[in-house]
TrEMBL record:
InterPro entries: Put_HupE_UreJ. It comes from Paludisphaera borealis. This is HupE/UreJ family protein. It comes from the Bacteria. The chain crosses the membrane at residues 211-231, 267-285, 297-319, 339-356, 368-387. The keyword Transmembrane helix applies. Keywords: Membrane, Transmembrane, Transmembrane helix.
């Protein structure tokens, strides 16, 4: 069985056999997709605008191809046929309008091999030459569920080039936010590559929101932070352990962005899963080590791997950007990640603090909450680990 068929089987193979197995099937479904623990696929679009056409070179993730292929009958298709067929799917889910009129497209290039990320070239012919405004939007993978009630989504790092001019900055295209491009046909001479300030601010805000959503939809990071939270007894405990974790993942995220240090997903994903199990089990069997220097060290060491997990396919999609664009997008994304952390950490800690205060006179109630919550987290982490290795 090929790698693609194996992953396809894992993606679709969760059918509950009895009512008692429903909960287990749902938990397995959360983690059995090729993307690990995030319902977001990252890709890159290089768009060239000419007077008579718009050419889109799309570099997509392998997981995008696998998720889309899993929904159609492709049992007898070869891996390269599955890759090639994805070009037609992409054509139906990438949309371009010129001055409000939708453009018809055609796939003119498909991947020739199985190596690397698949690339496709789609050309959209302009019905009216030299339009004033182009709008790009996409709904790739939105019809597929990552988990019950949680659809997949694809996002793309975008660079748009008009004529012989260099690309004007970098943008992020998601299903939530279309990308607008104002054409300038006043001159065919190369112009400045820098985007206007309002476009840079919009791009930064888009990457910030992307970082927030990366946390809010990232079950692996949420489980790890939840395990840290359960052991925190005071706000100071929480501040120390979250700061240690944040310093570590920010360090490796920056190193990955600068291509100083990276690890393959086959190493990162199991280590993130192992970190969840380790911290949760430590809360149960070694509660005395779930606070203090040993917990800070664990949060920092595992945070290094989580930083590589934050990077994921985003950094691959941003490869080739100049240093200025890369630094700005990574900074905005990192700020969004931290905001997402705080949006989860502070309310949950407040709830736990309230529960502890209200049950102060009930012996063992606090310990029961910590052990029970940690047991559930360790089970979920174990499922994730078994599917990540």
């Amino acid at each position: 069985m090929s790698t693609i068929e194996t992953r396809r089987h894992r993606l679709l193979g969760h059918v509950p056999l009895a009512r008692v197995a429903v909960a287990i099937a749902v938990l397995a479904h959360l983690f059995a997709t090729p993307a690990g623990a995030h319902p977001v696929s990252q890709g890159k679009l290089e768009i060239a605008v000419s007077p008579d056409r718009v050419s889109v070179r799309a570099t997509v993730s392998n997981e995008e191809v696998l998720v889309a292929a899993a929904a159609v009958e492709s049992r007898h298709a070869s891996p390269i046929e599955i890759r090639n067929a994805h070009g037609d799917y992409l054509l139906g889910h990438l949309h371009v309008t010129a001055d409000g009129a939708p453009l018809a497209g055609k796939v003119v290039a498909r991947p020739a091999t199985l190596s690397g990320r698949p690339e496709y070239v789609i050309e959209f012919r302009l019905s009216v030459p030299r339009p004033a405004r182009l709008v790009f939007w996409e709904d790739v993978l939105r019809e597929f569920e990552f988990a019950p009630g949680v659809p997949w989504e694809a996002s793309y790092v975008v660079q748009v080039r008009q004529g012989v001019r260099p690309p004007r900055g970098v943008s992020l295209l998601t299903f939530r936010e279309p990308l607008e491009f104002a054409c300038d046909w006043s001159s065919d001479l190369p112009g400045p590559a820098a985007a206007p300030s309002h476009e840079r601010h919009r791009t930064a805000l888009t990457f910030f929101r992307h970082g927030v959503m990366h946390i809010l939809t990232g079950y692996d990071h949420l489980l790890f932070v939840a395990a840290l939270l359960l052991a925190a007894r005071s706000l100071w405990d929480l501040v120390k352990v979250v700061t240690s974790f944040s310093m570590a993942h920010t360090l490796t995220l920056a190193m990955s962005a600068l291509d100083v240090f990276r690890l393959p997903e086959q190493v990162v994903e199991p280590m993130i899963a192992a970190s969840i199990v380790f911290v949760a089990v430590q809360n149960i069997v070694q509660p005395e080590r779930s606070r203090g220097a040993s917990r800070l060290l664990a949060a920092f060491l595992f945070g290094l791997f989580h930083g590589l997990g934050f990077a994921g396919g985003l950094l691959e999609a941003m490869s080739g950007l100049n240093l200025s664009d890369l630094a700005g997008t990574v900074a905005a994304f990192s700020a969004g990640v931290e905001f997402g952390h705080q949006a989860v950490v502070l309310p949950v800690f407040g709830l736990l603090y309230f529960l502890r205060r209200s049950s102060a006179g009930k012996a063992g109630c606090d310990r029961l909450v910590e052990r029970g919550g940690s047991a559930v987290i360790s089970l979920l982490g174990a499922i994730y680990f078994s599917l990540a290795i």
